[in-house]
Amino acid sequence: MPALGEIRHALWFKLTAAFLLVAAAGVIIVAILANRATTVGFRHYLNQNVSNQWADLQLQLALYYDRQGNWEGVESLLVAAGPGRGQGGGSLVLLASDGQVVALAGGRRNYPTSAAEADVNLPILVDGQQAGTLLVKQPGGGGGGGGAGEQFLVQVNNAIWWGGLAAVLLALFLGVFLARRLTQPLRQLTEATRKMARGELGQQVSTIERGEIGELSTSFNQMSVALAASEQQRQQMLADVAHELRTPLSITQGHIEAMLDGVFEMTPENLALVHEETLLLGRLVDDLRTLSLAEAGQLSLDRVTVNLSDLMVQSVSAFEPLAEAEGVELTAEVPAEAVMITADPSRIRQVLGNLLSNALRHVSAGENGPPQVTLSLFNRGDVAQLRVSDNGPGLSPEAQQHIFDRFWRADRARSRDQGGSGLGLAICRAIVDAHDGRIWVKSTAGQGATFIVELPAVKENETRAKGAKAPRGN
Q: Looking at residue 263, what is its pLDDT?
């Protein structure tokens, strides 16, 4: 069970406290306003009722003064009116216009001597002039309703406060319920993140909630899947690197031990085999370094404006001897106009070399007539598009999804010498991405494959502007 300190810092507890505080503040304010409004309104009602009760006496006093011209003998009128009204312990006081007491009636104690001490004060008007003031003191000083009126006010106020307390308790219950319900997805996320911190990747949480919490759960699930895939890829990469390094190292170690034991003679031919394996190791390490730098965004690029057509011709010329030896027809389709790009020429040649090497390696297994590899270039306006096509066995849809993954080979049965290290196409994608381009493959199983590369092209006016700024020779 969570400790009190942990509960105090829990989000559901804070939400509940916030709900309760808002509800309590609202209930208290409403109760105070309702209490005040009820008290003032009820007292006004009572006073108005009392005023109506003594309105006849007020009129009689006004007629008396108008007829007499003074207040002499008016006390008999007050005494006659008091018992008739059934006021019991109440009292009546008549004040002259100068504030002097001119007549008393009713109870013998607690006579009001001023308007402040009276429950009701009624002005006596004669011809628009105030001739006096009638002060009324209700029995028990209760402002018209006596003890019954005060008791009624107490009951109403008690009902308001009890209703407010019930509202606060209801708010507490609803606050706990809603807070626990609202924070349940967050608790699931917390538990899932703790499991991921312990190495249990691939955790998933419920996404039935909508709104911000639902979006957070969906993003967490996507992140979890991505992390699990990345970890699996990392482990697979480590296994592949170990496998790729073990083969040349084992060959090198075996040859050296054989020469040391006298099994093999230390001839130039045997040393050449060892040297070739060290070169393979060096290329593998260079490929891994290039790939890691590119994926980390730290691959250095010496960007210049270059004609992509020239790079194509150079690459095709470099691979023509290998294609001829393999019996592959290697052709290049270059447009008449220059296709200018801003790129690192050596890196683009590396992309072309990897694509051509991959095509020549697989096209020989094709059954679609004489093996052919075609390198094409198209100017698409804003982009320059390269296509490397072959009529080999093609790729299955599953193979197309993984063709650019590290250490992936379409045919796992092929040896490293036959199938390459599995890094060439991954390096192509990394270099193309570094040049703000994109690369993909189109293929149908049994009908060859076409690798397509698009790179941002330099517009003709930009090329002319750069040419105009270039210094001229003498």
A: 83
In angstroms, the CA 449 to CA 372 distance is 11
pTM over 0.90: no
- 29 and 173 co-located in one domain: yes
Shared domain check, 136 and 118: yes
Residue 13 contacts by C-beta under 8 Å, 6 or more apart in sequence? 7, 179
pLDDT at 10: 62
Cβ neighbours, 10 Å, residue 301: 15
Regions of the chain with pLDDT less than 50:
1, 83-88, 142, 144, 413, 415-419, 465, 467-474
DSSP code string of 166-212: HHHHHHHHHHHHHHHHHHHHHHHHHHHHHHHHTT-----------HH
How far is the CA of 192 from the CAs of 87, 186, 195, 416, in angstroms? 79, 10, 5, 41
pLDDT tens-place string over residues 352-381: 999 998 888 888 655 667 889 999 999 988
In a domain? residue 404: yes
Distance CA 26, CA 167 (A): 10
The residues facing 456 across adjacent strands are: 383
Q: Measured at the alpha carbon of residue 270, what is the angle toward residues 264 and 272, in degrees to the nearest 5? A: 165
pLDDT reported for residue 412: 52
Say whether both 375 and 245 belong to one domain: no
> In the block, which residue shows the tokens 């608790």?
187
* pLDDT for res 313: 92
Domain with 243 in it: 211-295
Q: Which residue has the tokens 């070739």?
A: 276
User: How does pLDDT run across 246-259, given as a tens digit for each residue?
Assistant: 777 888 888 888 88
Q: Is residue 206 part of a domain?
A: no
pLDDT at 469: 46
Reference 57, options 108, 103, 89, 88; nearest CA is 103
pLDDT at site 223: 86
- What is the percent of the chain with per-residue pLDDT over 90, rounded to a whole number? 16
315 burial via Cβ count (<10 Å: 0-12, 13-18, 19+): buried
Cβ atoms 251, 277 nearer than 8 A: yes
Q: Give the gyration radius of the chain's Cα atoms.
A: 51
DSSP character string of 81-148: HHHHTT-TT-EEEEEETTS-EEEEEE-SS----STTT-SEEEEEEETTEEEEEEEEE-GGG-TTSHHH
Residue written as token pair 């008007």: 125
**257 and 308 housed in the same domain:** no
Distance CA 112, CA 118 (A): 5
